């Protein structure tokens, strides 16, 4: 392994989430006919597709999605205040014991949903969803397999580019969206203006990620990745 490749690997190991470092390395490998370049590109797609699908499901009409999806998972997003009722519904839906149902409900946290039932057709999935109707829990149907990591750990929304010359307005928006102080917001804006993306929010659910994207629609561009 030569020094150039060692530098590529060191850059990736120092920042595993640096997409650009992986793309440059993949280019370098493919120029040499090395199939490891293809592996890097496919791995990057495998990592990013669940996040992108989760975001698109928020934007696209749900009725249309239900017509084109193949199989569904029933996902417990939040348990609400009626925990006993939720546990009872989980037991009935998943056909599991009290202890296992309680453990599943207890494991649900912000940005960490839990799959109640998996790989169902639409009719069965909607009947299971109805079991939670009066429990106060937030339960969703998602495409089979999409609720697992990395999306279940939350999404990072990164500001990649600013499209406005009004720096003060950009700083104000960053402060509001990211909950940062004045200096932190200014530093983030300066970092993006210098050509380096900066994270706005981390560990958020897809709905919140889409809201952030909308807020920056006329101000800048954002990118999504798993936390």
Architecture overview:
The protein has 227 residues and is α+β, with helices and mostly antiparallel strands. It folds into three domains: 57 residues, no CATH class; 81 residues, 2-Layer Sandwich (Ribosomal Protein L30, Chain: A), CATH 3.30.1390; 73 residues, Ribosomal Protein L30, Chain: A. It has ten helices and six strands, in the order H-H-H-H-E-H-H-E-H-E-E-H-H-E-H-E. The strands form two sheets. A three-stranded antiparallel sheet has the order 2-1-3. Strands 5-4-6 form a three-stranded antiparallel sheet. Helix 3 crosses helix 10 and helix 8 packs across helix 9. It is globular.
Query: Would you tell me the overall average pLDDT?
Result: 89
CATH class of the largest domain: Alpha Beta
Based on the structure, what is the oligomeric state of the protein chains?
single chain
Helix content: 40-55%
Over the alpha carbons, how many angstroms does the gyration radius reach?
21 Å
* N to C succession of SSEs: HHHHEHHEHEEHHEHE
* Total discrete domains: 3
| Poorly predicted sequence stretches spanning 5 or more consecutive residues | none
Strand order of the largest sheet: 2-1-3
The shape is: globular
Structural class: alpha+beta
**Remind me, CATH topology of the largest domain?**
Ribosomal Protein L30, Chain: A
The separation of the N and C termini measures: 31 Å
Could you state the CATH homologous superfamily of the largest domain? Ribosomal protein L7/L12, C-terminal domain/Adaptor protein ClpS
CATH architecture of the largest domain: 2-Layer Sandwich
Number of strands: 6
| Largest beta-sheet characterization | 3 strands, antiparallel
Number of helical elements? 10
Strand content: 15-25%
């Amino acid at each position: 392994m030569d020094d150039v490749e060692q530098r590529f690997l060191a850059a990736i190991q120092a920042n595993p989430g640096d997409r650009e470092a992986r793309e440059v390395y993949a280019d370098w490998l493919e120029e040499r006919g090395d199939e490891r370049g293809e592996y890097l590109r496919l791995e990057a797609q495998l990592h990013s597709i669940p996040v992108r699908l989760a975001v698109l499901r928020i934007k696209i009409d749900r009725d249309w999605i239900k017509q084109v999806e193949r199989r569904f998972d029933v996902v417990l997003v939040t348990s609400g205040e009626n925990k006993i009722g939720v546990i009872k519904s989980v037991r009935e839906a998943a056909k599991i014991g009290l202890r296992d149902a309680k453990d599943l409900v207890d494991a649900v946290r912000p940005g960490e949903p839990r799959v109640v039932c998996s790989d169902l057709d639409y009719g069965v999935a909607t009947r299971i969803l109805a079991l939670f109707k009066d429990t106060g829990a937030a339960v969703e149907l998602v495409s089979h397999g999409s609720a697992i990591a990395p999306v279940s750990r939350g999404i990072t929304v990164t500001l990649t580019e600013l499209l406005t010359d009004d720096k003060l307005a950009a700083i104000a928006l960053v402060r509001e969206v990211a909950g940062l102080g004045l200096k932190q917001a200014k530093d983030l804006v300066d970092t993006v203006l210098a050509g380096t993306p900066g994270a706005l929010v981390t560990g958020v659910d897809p709905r919140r990620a889409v809201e952030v994207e909308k807020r920056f629609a006329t101000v800048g561009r954002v990118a999504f990745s798993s936390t």
